[in-house]
Structures are given as C-alpha cells and as structure tokens.
Write a structure and sequence with these properties.
Distance between the termini of chain B: 43 Å
Oligomer: heterodimer
Strand content of chain B: 35-45%
Number of domains of chain A: 1
Shape of chain B: globular
Structural class of chain A: alpha/beta
Family (chain A): Belongs to the iron-sulfur cluster assembly SufBD family.
Helix content of chain A: 10-25%
Pfam families (chain A): SUFBD_core, SufBD_N
Strand content of chain A: 25-35%
Structural class of chain B: alpha/beta
Shape of chain A: globular
Distance between the termini of chain A: 20 Å
Number of helices of chain B: 9
Protein name (chain A): Fe-S cluster assembly protein SufB
InterPro entries (chain A): Fe-S_cluster_assembly_SufBD, SUF_FeS_clus_asmbl_SufB, SUF_FeS_clus_asmbl_SufBD_core, SUF_FeS_clus_asmbl_SufBD_sf, SufBD_N
Strand order of the largest sheet of chain A: 4-3-7-9-12-14-17-20-22-24
Largest interface: A-B, 36 and 37 residues
Number of strands of chain B: 22
Largest sheet of chain B: 12 strands, mixed
Number of domains of chain B: 1
Organism (chain B): Gluconacetobacter asukensis
Radius of gyration of chain A: 22 Å
Chain lengths: 496, 421
C-alpha cells in the first residue's frame, strides 16, 4: 500500500471509535423500578422464585451493606455513585422460559453472534471443511448472561454425562439447593466488603459449576456477560466447586454498549477447590471503557476469591483487563490446604482516561503452600494503572513460598503507573521474593522494529505483546489470540 | 501526602497540655489536625501497620527543666564508651528536650542557634510532626555557610524520666546547608525510663551541598520514639542518611525527602534490629519533583523474639521528573517463629522516561550457608552471628562517612552481644 494511503487509513481508523462491541440490542425488557430497598430485594427474590433461606441471606447482606461505606483506599476517583438511581433487576422479557436454543429470542442470538460467542452447539468433526476464514476450535460450553439473567447454557447434556453441573446459579438454587446453600458465601461472606455485600443483596444471576470427585471436566466452560439495558447495574454471582482430584478450566468474557453514563458492575466470584483439585479461571475483561474524553464506561468493582481448601489443591487466576472506565478487582487465593498452590497472572492495560486498581491477595495458611504473582501493567494516554497486592504468611505456613514480579510500562508522559505491594510474614521458614520495575518502551527496541519496516503502532504492539508474553501464554489458546488483538486495539491512538 | 481519615484515637492527653497562649498559627493548625483526626491507629493507610493507640492512655507530662544529673552523666559516658566516640568530636546535647550548653562542645563552621517558635516551626501535614508542633519547646538550628566543610558532629538526645512519671519531649531541629557546604551528623538518642521522644528535623541542602545524617536510636526499651525528617534537596545536592533502630518499645522513623532541582541525590537507608516485643517502623516518602535525580534505598530488618518490623517506602515521581533513577530494596530476616515483618514498598510514577525498581525479600537464615560454616568448625551461634552481620553489611556499607560507619558497625556488634546475653 502506498505510504500516503496507509497514513490516511491509519488516521481514519483513529478518528472513529475502536470499541467494536459498542452496539445496543433492541429487546423488550422486564425491569424492576429504580432504587434499592428491602422491597427491591423481595421483588428480585420473588421473580426468581427463590426459597426463603436465600431471601433471608440477601436481606442480611442488605442490612450489612446499609452500615458500610464505600472503600476509599484504591487509587481511583469517580463522582459519588447514587445507588438509588439504578435498576437492580433487568431481564429480557420471555414467554415461558426457553427450553432450547430455538425458543430464545432471535434478537438475542444475533447479539451473541455479533460478539462472536458460539451459542449453537457445533460438533467438531474430523475432516469437515470449515468455511473460509473460520478456525476449528474445540467445543466450549457457554453460559450467556444478558443483563441480569442467564439466557442460555450450551452443552449441558455432554457435561451432565460426565457428572459436571454447569447451569445458571438461579437454576442451581432450585435444582441443587443443598450445594448452593453449603458453598454460597463461604469464600466471600455477605459482609466481606461494600460491593460484595451489595452483590449478595441484589445478585440476579451468574454461573454455577460443580465438578464431582475425580472428574476432569471434558471441555472448557465459559460465561459470557453482556450489559445491555440502560441505567442498570449488573450483579452476577459465580460459584465454582471442584471436588477431590477433579479439575476445570473456566473462561469469562464481557462487553457492554457504548454509553455516556457510567454503569456499575459489581460481581462476586467464589471458587472452592478440595484435595488435589485444580481450577483455572481466565478472564478477558472488555467492558466499555468510555470514550477518549473519559465519558461513560463501566465501573467494574468486583470481588473474586478462591479457597484452596484441600491439600495440594490449586487455583490459577489469569486476567487480561483492557476495558472498564474504572477497574477495582483483586482475584485472591486463600491457601488453606497443605501444599496448595495459588497463581495470579495479569495484564492490565489502560488508555485515555481509564483507571485500574487491580492485583491479588495470596493468604498462606497451610504448610508448604506456594504462590506466584506475575502482573504486567501498561498505561497510556491520560490513564492511571495501579498494581495492589498482598502476600501474607500466617504463623502456620511453614515452608511457604511466594514469588512476585510486577512490571509497568508507560506509554506517553501524561499517564501514571503505580505499584503497591503489601508483604506480611509471620513465619520464620516462609520465603517471599518480590520485584517490580517501571520503565518506558525502550528506544532501542522501537528503533530495531522501525528499521525493519514496522509502523510505530505495530512496533509498539509487538513490544507490548512481548512484555505480556509471560501472562498471555497462561491463557487457553483461543483466548490468547483474542487477548493479543485486544491489547493492540486498546492501545490504538496512544502513540505517534 | 498522608491522607488521614478521621478514625484515630483521642489525642486529648497531648491536646490538654496545649494552651494556645502563644498564638502561633502553626501550633493552632496542628491542634486542629489532632482534634480532627486524633492519633492514628491501624486502618489509616499511612499508619497501616503501626498504631499509636497505646499512647492515648498514657498521661504524658512535660519534661522538667532539671533532669537527674547523675543519670544524664552515666548515659552520656555509656554512649561514648559503647560506640567509642572520639572525645574531641563536637557535640550538641539535648537533655529532656532542652538544649544543654554545659554538656555541649559546639563545632567551628556550624552556627548553632536555639529554637524560636515563631520563626522555626514549619507546618507539615503528618500526624507525628503535628504532635511535635503542638508541644515543641526547644531545638537547634545548625547552619553551615556556603562553601564551608564543617566536618563531623554529634547531635545527642538524652531523656531521663523520673520514676513513676511518663514524660514526652518534642524537640524541633533544623539543619541548613548553604551552596557547596558539607556536614556529617551523628544523630544519637539515649534515655532511661518511661517517655516519648518525638523529634522533628527539617533539612534544607542548597545547590551542591552534601549532608550525611547517620541516626542511631538506642532509647530505653520501655520508651517510644516518634521521629520525622523533612528534607528538601537542591540541585546537585545530596541528603545521605542511614537510620539504625535498636531501642524503644515502639518506634517510628518517618522520612519525607523531596528532590527539588536537577541532579539531586537522596539516600534513605536503614536497619532495624529488634528483639523481645519491640515494634519499629521505618516509613519514607521520596518525591522526585525535578528531572534527572537519583534516589537509593536499602533497608534491612533483623527480627528476633516476638518483634515486629515495619517498612513502608514510597517513591513518588512527578510528571516533570523525567530521567529519574529510583531504586529501593528491603529485606527482612526472621530469626524467630514469633517475629513478624510487614512491608509496603510503593512506586507512584507519573513520568514515562524513568527507571524505577524495587525489590523485597523475606526469609530465615539460609540453611546451606549455616551448614557451610558449621562444617568448617564455626559453632552454631557464631555462624548465625556471621550470617546476620553479612546480611546487614551491604546496607551499613552504604554510609558515606567512614567514622560514622564504624559507629554503626559497633552498634550492630553491641546489639548482637546484648541479644545473646
């Protein structure tokens, strides 16, 4: 392509928004009136035909929430949130509830098609020719959550054969009340923090996964969250329980339409891993980040925590955070069982006026527990990005081990990158190593790429991908490809 | 700088002693702050790991002008002997928070003046400085004129509390170095009894000046020590500090250093050797407010018994401070199963063309190294001593003044011997 045309295209592509998931779906919604009172909670509970114990649980959370104040220690700033000015329940109107995909509103299906989320169960057959441009992918079971409710969950029969339960949590409350009642709130108690308490009071849906003893989940499980309706908050609740010797890999993705107002997303994710169990939880977070002037975007205030209850259990968090106006999120591991392993791999990219305060907590309780933290932070534009992490060795964590590495990359001189690790040890034989660096993209690397004919933007993309490689390689393959593209798109317009 | 949420414990014990009579605006401001926020307890982010809750219940009294002379003499003689201080070394001595000219030998080249509240009370926004501003009665301003190399001196604080009385002293000092001036200060504190020592030191180093500040804190094991240093560093100037904390039941040394012009250098190094139920906190905020400055920090904690060590170190790089070079290392050695370390090394960076890094390690003595020494006939305790001193060596080694480095090394030696005994 001639140089002039290339430049023109590049400039044009910068002019328009790069958030391609910003469309809105016209669909009839069933909404609760604005505001949050006990009545709202009773309404949600009633709509979802919940048992009495869950309503009481919600009301307990609501009472606790009323007495709490918003946390102020994070390095983020936003105007005060009016919690009475939002709808706490929004569901696509449906007739009787879809029994199969055919009954789902076609408008919804088209939405997910546009998002590239496979809701049709396609069998993967050897030798079948795929249409040009389509890549063969292993089947992934998807639970699609649209605003407040789960619209469809695929591959349920295949999973059921293996004994795996994968369904919306509201359904699990009805079908498997003993499991839900036993584990819900056992990792993140109702009054854990301001946003977790709010979530506990008003959560509407989310995914539930139960993998029984010794079962290796036959496919990747995935939940796709979509905020669509205006003036709603999304409060989903995910609970994953993996029994002795079982394992599961779980993916989570999310998008939202482009809007000028801010919308709140306050989710809670709880993971429980028993003896020798393993949970891999991957997130590609791509909520709408707001426009170049910092208008609109999602406030992503999320509590994610996993309990390694069993000996030799393992929980691994991998996250690629490119979206949201504000991210406040600390996926954590409580390493209770002896020899338990916790991992946290994170890439957080902020551009324009985004703010991210994210990191992890590794609480070592058991003997010979191990944790690894690799966090890569990239700031561009006028954004601020903070890594905030806690490593705590409790007195009984003999022989425990932690390694932490946090690297920050600054692109441009109007952004900020911050590192705030908390390191606490009460055990003589526990070992902690932490290192952190902050720098900009090296001139030498840029020059090397430019000299070989890469545009500045491509060169930055390449270098950033290299910077994030340690984290990206932890993602399941198809997610890694998506994440790489996402990184490039997120940083568009930040150089040159 | 230190966001203070109103969640503290009552500072009434101190506020009751403030009369407001002298009409000093800084004092009134400090009183307002303490009334509003109280004394911090954990939960206030800047005081996350160190609570002053225990101070609230002690009826501290102002120190009497006359201290027990025999006790003062003994403490002075002990310090000189323990650290093998040169008998001719100039010194400025403070007894119970007041300047003691009879015990002092003032140096040539340093102009020493007494504290005058109206002129010398600089306002700061941290709680320990506010507490000092509220009750400061005396202190020294050490000024070195441009181009003068004033050599070495000791700033010595002695506090003797009468039996059964809890004293609090709040000296306010200032060190001012003119362009190209040089000075090395050994800042030594000793004492006996139940007291709170709350010294605040304002430092200003002009272009090309060079201040070495070696602090050795050996307060009474029952005492509390709450110190703050505010340092302003000019172009091509340096503030080179080392703080060795051995004494006090509860101690906090807080440093706010600001690099104001190009080419400035700040070193905030230190070591805390703690035993028993001691709690010691080294907190620093190094602000790069100009391009091409350099900050270095190496902090070691050696923790025995039920001791708890705290390190909070922040490097703040402002938008203008391009070409900043910042490095911070903090390491802790736990010698007992009941010791605890809490560390929060923090980078806050708003400029892109910078090189900043920090590292932290926590662990016990290396079993392989111990085995190596023992297999060569070095007995258990001695082998441990060798390894602990080696661990401290690369921090103490950074002290730029050789004689003061020797003092610090002797203090480490003394601590180890005493710990064994």
């Amino acid at each position: 392509m001639p140089a002039i045309a290339e430049t023109r295209d590049a400039v044009e592509s910068l002019g328009q928004s790069t958030y391609k998931w910003g469309f809105e779906t016209e669909i009839e919604m069933d909404m609760a009136p604005k505001g949050l009172t006990e009545d709202t909670i009773r309404l949600i509970s009633h709509r979802k035909q919940e048992p009495e114990w869950l309503l009481e649980w919600r009301l307990k959370a609501f009472q606790a929430w009323l007495g709490m104040t918003e946390p102020s220690w994070a390095k983020v700033s936003h105007p005060p949130i009016d919690f009475q000015d939002a709808h706490y329940y929004a569901a696509p109107k449906k007739k009787a509830g879809p029994k199969s995909l055919e009954e789902v509103d076609p408008e919804l299906l088209r939405t997910y098609e546009k998002l590239g989320i496979p809701l049709h169960e396609q069998a993967l057959l050897a030798g079948v020719e795929l249409p040009e441009g389509e890549v063969a992918r292993p089947p992934v079971a998807v639970d699609a959550v649209f605003d407040s409710v789960s619209v469809v969950t695929t591959f349920r029969e295949t999973l059921a054969k293996a004994g795996v339960i994968f369904c919306p949590i509201s359904e699990a409350v009805r079908e498997h009340p003993e499991l839900v009642r036993r584990y819900l709130g056992s990792v993140v108690p109702v009054a854990d923090n301001f946003y977790a308490a709010l979530n506990s009071a008003v959560f509407t849906d989310g995914s539930f996964v139960y993998v029984p003893k010794g079962v290796r989940c036959p496919m990747e499980l995935s939940t796709y969250f979509r905020i669509n309706a205006r003036n709603t908050g999304q409060f989903e609740r995910t609970l994953i329980v993996v029994e002795d010797g079982a394992s599961v890999s779980y993916l989570e993705g999310c998008t939202a339409p482009m809007r000028d107002e801010n919308q709140l997303h306050a989710a809670v994710v709880e993971l429980v891993a028993m003896d020798d169990a393993s949970i891999k939880y991957s997130t590609v977070q791509n909520w709408y980040p707001g426009d170049e002037q910092g208008r609109g975007g999602i406030y992503n205030f999320v509590t994610k925590r996993g309990a390694c209850r069993g000996d030799r259990s393992k929980i691994s968090w991998t996250q690629v955070e490119t979206g949201s106006a504000i991210t406040w999120k600390y996926p954590s591991c409580i390493l209770q069982g002896d020899g338990a392993v916790g991992e946290f791999y994170s890439v957080a990219v902020t551009n324009n006026h985004q703010q991210a305060d994210t990191g992890t907590k590794m609480i070592h309780l058991g003997r010979n527990t191990r944790s690894t933290i690799i966090a890569k932070t990239i700031s561009a534009g006028h954004s601020d990005s903070t890594y905030r992490g806690l490593v705590r060795m409790m007195p009984k964590a003999a022989g425990a081990r932690n390694f932490t590495q946090c690297d920050s990359l600054l692109i441009g001189d109007q952004c900020g990158a911050h590192t705030v690790p908390y390191i606490e040890s009460r055990n003589l034989s526990a070992k902690i190593e932490h290192e952190a660096t902050t720098s900009k993209i090296s001139e030498d690397q840029l020059f090397y790429c430019r000299q070989r004919g890469l545009s500045e933007e491509d060169a930055v993309g390449l270098i950033v991908n290299g910077f994030c490689k340690d984290v990206l390689k932890e993602l399941p393959m198809e997610f890694a490809v998506e994440a790489q593209k996402l990184l490039q798109i997120s940083l568009e317009g930040s150089v040159g | 700088m230190n966001a203070i949420a109103p969640v503290g414990v009552s500072a009434a014990a101190f506020l009751n002693r403030y009369t407001g009579g002298d009409g000093n605006a800084t004092r009134a401001q400090a009183a307002d702050l303490l009334r509003k926020t109280g004394l911090p307890r954990s939960g206030v982010e800047a005081w996350k790991y160190t609570s002053l809750r225990t101070l609230a219940d002690i009826p501290f009294a102002g120190a009497p002008v006359q201290a027990d002379e025999a006790a003062v003499d003994t403490l002075l003689a002990d310090a000189v002997r323990a650290y093998d201080l040169d008998a001719d070394l100039p010194r400025a001595v403070m007894v119970n928070g007041r300047f003691a000219p009879d015990l002092s030998r003032l140096p040539d080249g340093v102009s020493v003046t007494r504290f005058a509240a109206g002129a010398d009370l600089t306002a700061h926004d941290d709680v320990a400085s506010a507490l000092n501003a509220l009750l400061a009665e005396d202190g020294l301003t050490l000024t070195v004129a441009s181009g003068v190399d004033a050599g070495r001196m000791v700033l010595l604080s002695v506090v003797v509390a009468p039996d059964g009385v809890a004293l609090s002293v709040h000296p306010r000092h200032r060190i001012v170095l003119g362009a190209g001036a040089r000075l090395s200060v050994l800042d030594l504190s000793v004492g006996r009894g139940d007291y709170l020592n709350n010294p605040v030191l304002d430092v200003a180093v002009a272009k090309g000046g060079h201040l070495i500040h070696a602090k050795l804190q050996t307060e009474d094991p029952a005492a509390r020590h709450l110190a703050v240093v505010h340092a302003e560093v000019g172009a091509d100037a340096s503030y080179d500090s080392f703080t060795l904390t051995l004494g006090a039941a509860l101690a906090r040394h807080e440093v706010h250093a600001r690099l104001n012009a190009e080419g400035g250098i700040v070193h905030v190094n230190g070591a805390q050797l703690l035993d028993g139920r001691q709690i010691a906190d080294l907190t620093s905020v190094i602000t790069h407010a100009a391009p091409s400055c350099n900050s270095r920090q190496t902090v070691k904690n050696v923790l025995a018994g039920h001791a708890r060590g705290v390190f909070q170190g922040k490097i703040l790089v402002e938008r203008v401070a391009q070409k900043t070079d910042g490095y911070q290392m903090n390491q802790a050695l736990l010698l007992s199963d009941h010791a605890e370390i809490d560390a929060k090394p923090e980078l806050e960076i708003y400029a892109d063309d910078v090189r900043c890094s920090h590292g932290a390690t926590v662990g016990a003595l290396d079993a392989d190294q111990l085995f190596y020494l023992r297999s060569r006939g070095v007995a258990g305790e001695e082998a441990r001593a060798i390894l602990v001193k080696a661990f401290l060596h690369d921090a103490v080694e950074l002290m730029g003044d050789e004689a003061l480095r020797a003092v610090l090394n002797r203090a480490v030696e003394t601590w180890w011997t005493r710990k064994d005994a």
